[in-house]
Write a structure and sequence with these properties.
Elements: H1 3-10, H2 20-25, H3 28-35, H4 48-63, H5 79-97, H6 101-113, H7 127-135, H8 143-151, H9 154-159, H10 171-175, H11 183-192, H12 202-212, E1 215-221, E2 224-230, E3 240-242, E4 245-247, H13 253-263, H14 266-280, H15 287-299, H16 304-313, H17 315-319, H18 328-339, H19 348-357, H20 381-398, H21 404-410, H22 418-425, H23 430-439, H24 441-444
Antiparallel strand pairs: 1-2, 3-4
Helix pairs in contact: 5-18, 5-19, 8-13, 11-12, 14-15, 15-16, 20-23
Protein name: DUF1800 domain-containing protein
Organism: Oleomonas cavernae
InterPro entries: DUF1800
């Protein structure tokens, strides 16, 4: 079995399924490139409009006196919580069953880059559909299109309070004592495009906040579901200057002009390249790799397929040791893929509780910055012990259906020393041996 097949399945994938190494061995890089052409899987979950209808049911529940507590109290008649758990379960099955795991890894990466979090209760019914509709269709397209889809989705407008932002000199602003909310503009500059060291100023934050005014709730009220869009009556009139570029007064088109400029800015290229290399190579990204990816991004006008192909072409990415630790989500998914079935965690509420126990339940990042990508920022001794406890628990439940020798061959055997493999084979019982496989450094790293 080739080491490149191991790297392809773990560094670029989500952990190998049975038989995946054999499929990758002939031409690992070619097999990964083919995955970029895969289409996003079809979902039977509600689209954005449907999720907003369900969100409205939360409003009805609150009117009946159930309140915010109903979101987390486990009541079986809570449709918002039910949708949230269904989204988690569907996401888990999608990742475990995927035959294009590189594409799913890209979805996870860009979803974290454009974080929306259910720490804001209004996001709970929208987080899953945000990832499916705003992120997944664009991970192999142009970054500018991904930026537009993510930044203007109702989940992001809700999460960063954009719906409350009003141009002070707009028609609505002149009638009400209302003004700008800078949250979305600030995070677009700091997190989504230029980066914290990208050279923007507070004046640029204000300028982008003015450009974005108008993106809000445009319909709803009473018992009607919310609808989001652009309301010219809330938009701040006049030309704006953003990062030295004049954005002429043009309603919602100002947003598109600003996004096009930001997506092509050299600071955005460096910021995105740094994050991608950190994610796929090492916590401390090699500068030469960052420079290479930033150049491809700039030369290709932000073509994310070209950028991903450039990542795959980096020699260092195939030569560097696997030093990245799998996140709780990646670990759970890789156990499911190693077992060949998402049924190992078919109870969606239990899956949520287990991931929360590991500190990273889906869509619960503590800030718009998302989950950190440096292991030292999120994995301490307590978290490591909880991982081992979880793996021991899962192993005890599934070990009876696993062939140990096949599990070794399908997971860690290509890179584990023969003496360590023999040590696992000599474990006192099957469950202990399976736990040793999942808890090994070779399995936990990617």
């Amino acid at each position: 079995m080739s080491r490149d097949a191991f790297i392809a399945a773990n560094r670029f994938g989500l952990g190998p399924r049975p038989g995946e190494y054999q499929a990758l061995s002939g031409d690992p890089r070619g097999a990964l490139l083919a995955q970029l052409s895969a289409r996003p899987p079809v979902s039977d979950l509600p689209d954005t409009a449907g999720a907003l209808v369900i969100a409205n049911s939360r409003k009805a529940m609150m009117a009946e006196g159930n309140g915010e507590k109903a979101l987390t109290d486990g009541r079986p008649d809570n449709p918002v919580r039910e949708l949230y758990l269904r989204e988690i379960g569907a996401r888990f099955r999608r990742c475990v069953d995927s035959e294009a795991p590189l594409r799913e890894r890209l979805v996870l990466f860009w979803s974290n880059h454009f974080t929306v979090s259910v720490v804001r209760s209004g996001v709970v019914p929208l987080a899953g559909v945000f990832e499916r509709e705003a992120i997944a269709p664009h991970v192999t397209g142009r970054f500018e299109d991904l930026l537009r889809a993510a930044a203007l989705h109702p989940a992001m407008l809700t999460y960063l309070d954009q719906a409350r932002s009003v141009g002070p000199d707009s028609k609505v602003g002149q009638r009400r004592d209302a003004g700008l909310n800078e949250n979305l503009g600030r995070e677009i500059l700091e997190l989504h495009t230029l980066g914290v060291d990208g050279g923007y100023t507070q004046e640029d934050v204000i300028a982008l906040a003015k450009i974005l005014t108008g993106w809000s709730v445009v319909k709803g009220g009473g018992d009607a579901p919310k609808q989001f869009g652009f309301d010219i009556n809330r938009h701040q009139p006049g030309d704006k200057v953003l990062v030295g570029t004049k954005i002429k007064e043009d309603g919602e088109n100002e947003t598109y002009a600003a996004f096009a400029m930001l997506a092509r800015h050299p600071a955005t290229a460096r910021h995105l390249a740094t994050k991608l290399v950190r994610h796929f190579v090492a916590d401390d990204p090699p500068p030469e790799a960052v420079a290479r990816i930033a150049k491809v991004y700039a030369d290709s006008d932000g073509d994310l397929t070209a950028v991903t192909k450039a990542l795959l072409a980096l020699d260092t990415i195939w030569a560097a040791p696997l030093v990245k630790m799998k996140t709780p989500w990646e670990l759970a998914v890789s156990v499911g893929r190693a077992a060949g079935s998402a049924e190992i965690m078919k109870d969606e509420a239990m899956l949520f509780r287990r991931l929360r126990g590991l500190g990273q339940a889906p869509f619960t990042a503590p800030s718009p910055a998302g989950w950190p990508d440096r292991t030292t920022d999120w994995l301490g001794p307590d978290a490591l012990m909880r991982r081992i406890d979880l793996l021991s628990d899962v192993s005890a439940k599934i070990s009876g259906s696993l062939d140990l020798e096949q599990l070794l061959t399908n997971t860690i055997a290509p890179v584990m020393a023969p003496q360590k493999l023999q040590f696992i084979r000599q474990a006192g019982d099957r469950a202990s041996a399976v736990t040793m496989v999942f808890a090994s450094a070779e399995f936990q790293r990617r």
